[in-house]
Amino acid sequence: MCSDLPNNLPINLIFRCGNPQFWIFIDKKCNYINDCGDCSDEIGAYAECPPCEPEWWPCTPVLYNYCSCIPRYLCQNSQQDCLDWSDEYTCTRAS
């Protein structure tokens, strides 16, 4: 069974990334982390993810491990984490 993953898994357990050669388990979809490598699991047309949750800040991240949100603990850390610098000037850390 393991030799032909993901084809041997039920379709509701996997998410096919933008590059069809790559796939992730469905629980990794919409977790705000770039698990597919191309953000198709977070902002792609097939992902259909909800907006950022309160402990995340919506922006276009500088770091490629995030797609459309960054964790609020990165806010006001004296490093640019969003392209527009909103993480340093607008965002506040969750309390």
Describe the structure.
This protein has 95 residues and is mostly beta strands. The protein has two domains: 1-49, Low-density Lipoprotein Receptor (Irregular), CATH 4.10.400; 56-89, no CATH class. It has one helix at 86-89; strands at residues 14-16, 23-25, 56-58, 69-71. The strands form two sheets. It has a two-stranded antiparallel sheet with strand order 1-2. Strands 3-4 form a two-stranded antiparallel sheet. The longest helix has 4 residues, at 86-89. The chain starts with 13 loop residues before the first strand and ends in a 6-residue tail after the last helix. The mean pLDDT is 90.
Write the layout of secondary structure elements.
Layout: E1 14-16, E2 23-25, E3 56-58, E4 69-71, H1 86-89
Antiparallel strand pairs: 1-2, 3-4
> What general form does the structure show?
elongated
Largest sheet: 2 strands, antiparallel
SS class: mainly beta
What's the order of the H and E elements?
A: EEEEH
> Could you estimate the helical fraction of the residues in percent?
under 10%
- Structure summary, number of beta strands: 4
| The CATH C-level class name of the largest domain | Few Secondary Structures
At CATH level 2, the architecture of the largest domain is Irregular
Low-pLDDT regions: none
Spatial extent as radius of gyration: 15 Å
Strand order of the largest sheet: 1-2
Specify the oligomeric state. Answer: single chain
How many H/I helical runs?
A: 1
- The chain-level mean pLDDT equals 90
CATH topology of the largest domain: Low-density Lipoprotein Receptor
The domain count comes to 2
How much of the polypeptide forms β-strand, as a percent range?
Answer: 5-15%
